[in-house]
Request: fold
Amino acid sequence: MTLVIPALRAHLVSVAASYCMKKGMDFQIIDVDIHNKPEDLAVMNPYNQVPVLVERDLILHEANIINEYIDERFPHRQADAQLTR
Reply:
């Protein structure tokens, strides 16, 4: 699983990364300079924004959707409920 986030992490993006960590997920973080975005970011997200979660053939963008997906995909792993608010 790969999580693409900005190098200067906005609050919601940090929440997505923190949520993955709290759930004990095995994932890779790719920091992106939002002023010099890589070309493949536009392929992953039509809005050319971060965060982006890539898992196999699935690509998700938007922090709340990423958190919801992680909850549904890995329900047996508990995270702090405060992180999702």
Observations:
- The domain at 2-84 is CATH 3.40.30.10 (Glutaredoxin).
